[in-house]
Write a structure and sequence with these properties.
mainly alpha, 6 helices, about 0% strand
């Protein structure tokens, strides 16, 4: 009887562990991968959104599509994380309101890589800084055009 109880307990522990991994850990990891992809895209496409309308139309379209896809993925991944408010605290993820804000900034950057008003470049860089602040992506103070609002993080 002791052997049977040991096997059942071991199986139950394994099964509960797998459920926790699949339902909580994997979605959190995927969310963090999307944030990493956004961090990469902010740097990769900086020359496009910092100089709207200067690059080729093909490059503008590609960067616009990628930024829009990242916004969609960010929202989707947030909704896949169960009990997001509690899970975000436990795993150090940004608050839900900050994720929604970041998705908005990504859409804004996506829409403004094309030729536009002369002051759009500065507005785009400010959006990228706010996007990084919302997701907790580090931007060196020397690379900022606006000071970081310490209360917003």
């Amino acid at each position: 009887m002791d052997v049977f109880l040991t096997v059942v307990t071991g199986f139950a522990t394994f099964a509960l562990g797998q459920i926790a991994v699949k339902l909580v850990i994997d979605p959190v990891q995927e969310f963090k991968k999307v944030v990493a992809d956004i961090s990469h895209a902010v740097i990769e496409y900086a020359y496009v959104y910092s100089n709207p309308g200067i690059t080729s139309l093909e490059v503008q379209k590609k960067s616009s599509e990628e930024l829009r896809k990242l916004s969609s993925r960010l929202n989707a991944q947030m909704y896949l994380v169960p009990w997001y408010p509690a899970t975000s605290v436990l795993f150090g993820l940004p608050r839900k309101s900050r994720v929604v804000e970041a998705a908005r900034y990504l859409i804004g950057l996506s829409n403004s890589v094309f030729e536009s008003a002369k002051n759009q470049a500065i507005a785009n860089v400010e959006k990228s800084e706010k996007l990084c602040d919302a997701l907790g992506i580090y931007v060196h103070e020397g690379d900022r055009i606006t000071p970081k609002n310490e209360n917003s993080a």
